[in-house]
Every structure is written in C-alpha cells, then in structure tokens.
Amino acid sequence: MDSTVLDETRDPLAIAEGWLDDGRHVAVATVVETWGSAPRPVGSHLVIDGEGNFHGSVSGGCVEGAVITEALDVIEGGTPKMLEFGVADETAWRVGLSCGGRIKVYVERLG
Known about the structure:
Largest sheet: 5 strands, antiparallel
Helix content: 25-40%
Number of strands: 5
Number of helices: 3
Shape: globular
Distance between the termini: 22 Å
Strand order of the largest sheet: 3-2-1-5-4
Low-confidence stretches: 1-6
C-alpha cells in the first residue's frame, strides 16, 4: 500500500494530483449533500486509485468501503455515480451509517 495513504495531514486532492502525475487511474468521491447527523460536511473528499489505495474521508469511516468499491467501478467504466447512504437505507446499516444522518456522495474519475 502506498505510504501517502497514511499521511492524514495532506489534502486528498493534492494526493490525487500526485497519483495522476505517477500515471495512476484515480477517482474522487465528494460529499455533495447531507441531512441530519452526517459524519462529514459537504465538500469532504475521498480519493481512490485503481489499486484500491485511498486517502481522505466522506463519512468518518462508516461507508468508505462501499464508496471505494463503487469508485473502482467508476475508474474502470468511466461513468460517474451518485451514491446515497442513510439510516433508512439497508445498505447504510450494513456498512455502518447508523448515526441518523444521510449523505449523498458523487464519485467521478479524474484524468
């Protein structure tokens, strides 16, 4: 795994830029809407490369696994996706978003 994944002080978009410069395929997930007790604010980013390395957060850890899986599909297929997780959503409970909030995350390929 890339050591930059563990560097929490760096901006995820700067990490993505470095990965692109290294020739990696990259997707960015951005929180675009929140309702209720959402774990991360609008504008939060998670960047993912084609090998599954990631940096940043869109949910404080509770839905990152699902977002990473979707991001890998976006990297491969090129088609952006809008994801929504909330307490009423069975997927949200399965991945851990039981805090009462809902988030909408836009995932797109860069480069």
